[in-house]
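Internal tracking record. Fields below are filled automatically when a chain is submitted to the structure queue. Please do not edit lines marked as system-generated. If the sequence contains nonstandard residues, flag them in the REMARKS field before resubmitting.
Queue: standard
Priority: normal
Entity type: single polypeptide chain
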Amino acid sequence: MALTLFKKKVDEFDYESLRTCKTCESEFKGRYCNKCGEKVTERYERSILHFLDNLLNAFTFLDGKFIKSLKLLVLRPGQLSKNISDGRQVPYMKMISLFFVTNFFYFFFPVFDSYNSTFKTQAYLLGAHSEQVRVISDNYTAEHKISIQDFEETYNNHSTNLSKILIIMLVIMFSVSSLLVNYSKGKFYIDHLLFGLELYSFHILINLVMLANVLLYLIKLVAHWGWNWQILLSDNLFSLLALITLFYWLVKAEKNFFQQKWYWAIPKAVLLYFLMIESVYVYRVALFYITVQTM
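SYSTEM-GENERATED OUTPUT FOLLOWS
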């Protein structure tokens, strides 16, 4: 149920009066035009209180559709995509909206720069690509007569903005991987795109936002007693935790969305996971070059 400033009141709307739609000029009875779906604007909807009510709901996202979508996302991986693909869309949040809501939380509560790769990540943590990054950055600073610190600051600011848009590349690459791995199931590409949006909504919201921030606050809490639990957010341990949750999700999703038997779901989940890791590397490389070219 959506958060609201209003108490539940008796419905006094006149459902029997014949009205003319403001949009398509068709005649209809009830709250909505049965031809174009336009809603009758009631008097209370013009009030400041109603505006604030909508504003509250827009910033919390805690409406019924979000909660129902979140439950399926966590408890029945792949089922949300299956329901929407099968035509049961009304009870749930639009998948693309859910994806961008999770991204809002990710960029608002950052712990890892998994998809917003900083210059240091690009220059030192990505193997052979990092060597090329250092060469390009040296050439850029020499050409524009700026320090490497100025380059890093400009790069990080620009990369942060671009990553909010380019993160959809990850979904597209994963959906292509899903299409290839599950080609025998004969689903449309748009179904695999839904599947990719659901996967990344889960990974970003559960792993990169909720799990990462819970561990971060736990580390800060125990630090008051002089305990150092920084290892909880080390790359190796956190990657292991993310691997476990993603593998669980992918196996369950293969069974729910693609109706795979468990002995096919497990190897396909492993393959999709490794393809997902490779796509993140490709994304980071693309993000660097696009950022530098548009700075």
